Amino acid sequence: MHKLVVLYPEPADPDHFRDYYVTNHLPLVASWPGPLAWRYSFDVAVTEGEAPYFAVFEADFADAAAMEEARTSPHGERLSADVANYATGGVVILHYPVLDGAG
């Protein structure tokens, strides 16, 4: 499996971010072909100090090729372009292969 993680620093207008994200952006995500599963949260916390991020999104893909195909598809490009409509604090995008732990 391959994971895509999007970290959102504090936006200029948190209420606008939440409203736009839920009302406009997530419906685009829901119809995005490619992810096996996805999830998000506005309740980002750290064990000590102040969290550097306001929100987080993660999506699971079969592998890196499936993620890249989804990101570069017309729908994926529409999703990327939409980020500017709410993420005034910027965005950090990570991706990595997920390895199973051995106990």
TrEMBL record:
Source organism's superkingdom? Bacteria
Q: Where is the EthD domain?
A: 11-88
Return the protein name.
Answer: EthD family reductase
Taxonomic source organism: Streptomyces huasconensis
